[in-house]
Structures are given as C-alpha cells and as structure tokens.
Amino acid sequence: MSVPTESLSPAGAREHVSHALHQGDRVWQETNCYVDLWIELLHGMGFDPRAALAFTVTQDFEGDQFTFFKFPLEDIEKLYGTQVQELAIYDSLEDRVRAQTQRGNTVLVEVDGYYLPNTRATSYKREHPKTTVGIDFIDPPLRRLGYFHNTGYHTLEGEDYDGVFRRLPQFQGQADLLFPYVEFAKPVRPPLAGSALAQGSVQLLRGHLLRRPPRNPVTEWRAHFPAQLDMLLERGERFFHPYSFNLMRQLGANFEFLSKYLGWLNAQGIDVPESIAVSAQKIASEAMVMQFRLVRAMARGRRDTCDDCFDVLEAAYENTLPPLARHMA
C-alpha cells in the first residue's frame, strides 16, 4: 500500500499539499469539480492520479458542449484498489457521512457551493452552484468537517456546516426536499505500483482509444459554432461564463491533462512521441486563446467566428489522437 502524502491532524482534519497537477505552470488552473476532487483525493490516499488519465482520449463534442470528462470509477478500482459505491441516504445525510468516515471511507456528495468557504472568490455566500466535495472527517459536536474540493483540501464549520447538511431553519419542514446523490470510496484491495501501475494504465489507454470519437470533435463544434455565437451575442456576458466553462474549458483542460498523462507515461519508460503531447498541449493553449478572443468580441459587440482558432484546434487534434492510436496499437 502506498504511503499517504498527508496525515490527520490532532483535530481530525488533514494536512494536505496539492498534487503537482494543481501546481506550477498550467493553462487551465481548474477543470471541473469532479476531476479536480479526484486528483486531490487519490493524492491524499498516497496514489499518483496521473496514471488514471487515460480516459481523456474519449472526449467528444456533444452537440452543445464537450464531454464533462470524469475519471471512470472502474479505472480507479483497477489501478488503485479503491471501489466507489452509491451511498443510501435513508434518514440524515450527516449521520450517514459520520458512519462512513468512521470506517475510514471518503464520502463524495453534491452540496451547495454557497456554503464552501474555499470558494470566496466565486460562489461563497453569493450563488448556489451544485458542486461535489469529498468528506473524510466530521465532528458533529463542534459542527466541523474536512473536505476535498477543487484543487485542495479545506475545512468548514458553524453555519456553513449546517448549510452543507441542510440543517438551517429555511430547510426545515420542506417535505419535497430531495436527498443529494452521494457516493463513498473505500479501499478493497492493494493498489498497483511501479511497473504494474504503468502497464495497467497502458492497458486502460488502449481500451479507451477504441472508444475515441469516430471523427474530429473540433470539426463538429465548428459546424455548430455560428449559431452558438449568435446566442452568445444575444444573451451577453451572463451566458458566456457557463458557455465557456462547458466548451473552451472542458476541451482545453481535458487535453492539458492528456499532455501531462503522456509525459507521465514517458517517465515510466513507456515511449510516446513527444510531438503527440505537444499537440495535446496546443489544444489546451488555443482553447484559452479562443476564450479571450470571445471575451473581447462580446465586449465590442463584434461577431468573431474565430476561424484561425478552429484551424489550430482541428490540426492539433489530428496530430494528437490519430497518431496516438496508431502508436499504441
């Protein structure tokens, strides 16, 4: 079993340093709440999350968004011996979280970002976005908990604790208030390590490459973009933020992680041409360029079809997935 990179403090919460994927020079500092959570959760368990990034080759254009990419749970079990199951919430979310964390498991639950103090720059006490956290420590008498979220590990207490568990007065007496969707992660067998981890990851990569899109998803997006651009100009800045999150950020962040993954494979002695990783990173950087261009275009009320950005993105994709599939065949 790998040695954890942090430990529980006397008060119960972890001392945690973010994984290298969330440090240093990156185009996309955050990706989506589920991927960023699992990177830190696996890191907190003592594992290297880069081994599980093979799934990034499957991202597709879904008509109005790019695939909201997520670690496949079966990959996590195969590589790290950690199983994820749905947790039944049949009375109190707080009680069920306490029961699982006492067993050494981590509970993944969708909560209201309004009550997460680590989001002070965005949603904390301002908006009510749905987001996923991984709770590994809870102290009901002190109304305090520790949780993985986004690019790190955090604690909250007091009114925020009551808000996360929906114990505030405004939640009382709401018979139609649905329980959130909850999972829990538990170790079930020893993780792979060393060369076995690298070979297990390569096996997953070959399987995922068989599931890659049958055509260039950037080309698909390009065909839909003129109508989406009209909608952006009509609906303005408020609509741009969720649009850019689900298109430019998901595309760019996904391929930045693919680039990091291919670098990790090379470090494990699995030869992958460097040009493929460079092309994947080019998708990440050009998606950011396109986001900034659209911000400027909207500020000026100008219709910018970003044709040169699409040219770069399409070519970079063709220089990433097809040669990678040929190389790994």
Give an overview in words.
The protein has about 325 residues and is an alpha+beta fold. The chain folds into 2 domains: about 20-185, Cathepsin B, Chain A (Alpha-Beta Complex), CATH 3.90.70; about 195-329, no CATH class. The chain has 10 helices and 6 strands; from the N terminus they run H-H-E-H-E-E-E-E-H-E-H-H-H-H-H-H. It has helices spanning about 35-45, 75-80, 95-100, 160-165, 195-210, 215-235, 235-265, 275-300, 305-320, 320-329; strands at about 80-85, 105-110, 130-140, 145-150, 150-155, 180-185. It has a 6-stranded antiparallel sheet. A hairpin with a 4-residue loop joins strand 3 and strand 4 (about 145-150). Helix 5 packs across helix 10, helix 6 packs antiparallel against helix 9 (about 305-320) and helix 8 (about 275-300) packs antiparallel against helix 9. The two termini are about 30 Å apart. About 35% of the residues are buried.
